[in-house]
Amino acid sequence: MKKLDIACLIDDDTMYTYLLSKQMRLIDFCDSILVFNDGDEALRYLRPIIETPETLPSVILLDINMPVLDGWQFLDEFTKFKIGKEITVYIVSSSIDQADHVKAASYKEVSNFYVKPITNDHLLEMLKEIGAKKEI
Amino acid sequence: MQSKLDLYQRVTPLAGLGIFERNFFSGEFYWNSVIRKILDVDENFSPQLEESLKFYKNPQEVRELIDLAIHTQVPQTKRLELITAKNDLKWVTIWIQADVLDGKCMRIYGTLQDITKEIKLQRLLEEREMRFSKAFDHAPIGMALVSLQGGWIKVNRSLCNLLGYDEEGFLQHTFQDFTHPEDLDSDLKQLQELLHGTINTYSMEKRYFHHDGRIIWALLNVSLVHDEFGVPLYFVSQIKDITERKKNSEIIRGQNSRLLNFAHIVSHNLRSHTGNIQMLTNMIITEDDRDEQMNLIKMLNVNAGNLLDTLSNLNEIVKVHDNGQAGKVSVRLEQEVQRVIDILSATIMQSEAQVDIIIAKDLSVEFNPAYLESILINLISNTFKYRHPDRTPRIIITAKKTPSQVLLSVQDNGLGIDLNLHGHKLFGMYKTFHRHPDARGMGLFLVKNQVEAMGGRIWAESEPGTGTTFTIEFE
What we know:
The complex is a heterodimer. By secondary structure, chain A is α/β, with parallel strands linked by helices. Chain A has helices at residues 14-26, 39-46, 71-78, 98-105, 120-135; strands at 4-10, 30-36, 59-62, 88-93, 110-115. In chain A, strands 2-1-3-4-5 form a five-stranded parallel beta sheet, with helices on both faces. In chain A, helix 4 links the parallel strand 4 and strand 5 (110-115). Chain A is globular. Chain B is an alpha+beta fold. Helices cover 47% and strands 27% of the residues of chain B. Chain B is built from 16 helices and 17 strands. In chain B, the strands form four sheets. In chain B, strands 2-1-5-4-3 form a five-stranded antiparallel beta sheet. In chain B, helix 11 (290-323) packs parallel to helix 16. Chain B is elongated and about 145 Å long. The chains are: A alpha/beta, B alpha+beta. At the A-B interface, helix 1 of A face helix 10 and helix 11 of B.
């Protein structure tokens, strides 16, 4: 399986982002990792670089419950972007609230909903799915 | 003439009419077969007048009737009770006519008709009517007979009590007067359908106004009574007070929603930590580097601490709801606010904030004092935590009493918050909206739970960049 270029983690749980980054490196998930602690931080980084696809991530792992701008609010802004690159978005949350799962399904930009913790199998599944998309 | 008499004698039994004649002058006596059947006697029985009167329960009554007939020479009639030869009790209608000549009664004659069946039926109906009337008057639920035009025909005591009127006061109002305007159309529509025969009866939950203005929730049941030809006569309405039930189901709904919300909070927050713990332990197992392993174990330790913190936070919330309305006492708002300001005085002085308290000294509310302190500390210290960097904080704390509640507001000129963006999660657990190092996302969540546990409400109004006002409505 081909590793990804850039992965983006948006989550306010710093221990989680540390651990997941480490896990990603261990299985050689991607070349580099961008970490943001809320949706607003992520948007402010991504917005100016829309024009340069090579600096954009090819996958975003997005938490729902975050301060300032939560996952949904991030998505509402992010989906307005005109991006020249295929970016796969996964929701990664501790929420087992059915309402969150239903809401995630209403965004066509969201490919899947993972409930924490993320395992190696989950990461490999993502790699496979994103790889398959590219071949089409 | 003979044939006429013959015909008469043959026809009257068909009509069930007994005929009698007693001629005092000639001694002639005649009873037809119907009379004999009424009295259960055979053809040979031919009593004297006094003997025949003994069949009647009250012979004197018959004697007086005969005297009256003789005296007035006008036919007399009466309903009488008699006991037959077979000891049966029967009701009859008697007609008596007397022929008088020179002041002397020559003969009496007349008819006798068995009306026992009719009397029994009448008695039955009367008894039913009485029973209905008693059931109506003393029914534990409100009942009314309503005319087709919508006016009251009859209302019972329960209904008057339900809406807080005496009967006289009640009858001065129409049912439209008592009905909540939002429920009127539906009620009238169904009344029309009932009248047109498209439905046979209807039930609805509707709101009435009590005499003192409060709303009474009731289950209304209406049916239409017709006469024997199917012509509508009047409506029968039954009105059952379900205010308590409505209130309880409201409370239960609220509790259920809070419980579900709490279950989600618990599950979410425990999962965040346990998720991390699992990732950590997996890594510790596969990590070869000793130093990195130690580092991961330290993180595991931090995580365990976080998990405990979360549990104790959740425990705090459970305690608030466990207590229910316990600890409610009368507290003076002005005094409590002043006390919290004293507690926070160091922060206030440091920030050079201006604090105005506009609360009447004697204004008090029923509340748990510990919760009130926690609420005030949270709301007031938030005003400093989220102060605007460019201005001196100004905080206005006001309380006012309306007829039904007390409203307390804490207004600041701080950062404000975009309620369109964050309004739905302002009071959520672990929700923070500014990048403030001390923000734990517990304060407003706890405040809301404490307010609601005491039966109150809290809400916020805010303008980003201008300030925020939190208002608490005390029950």
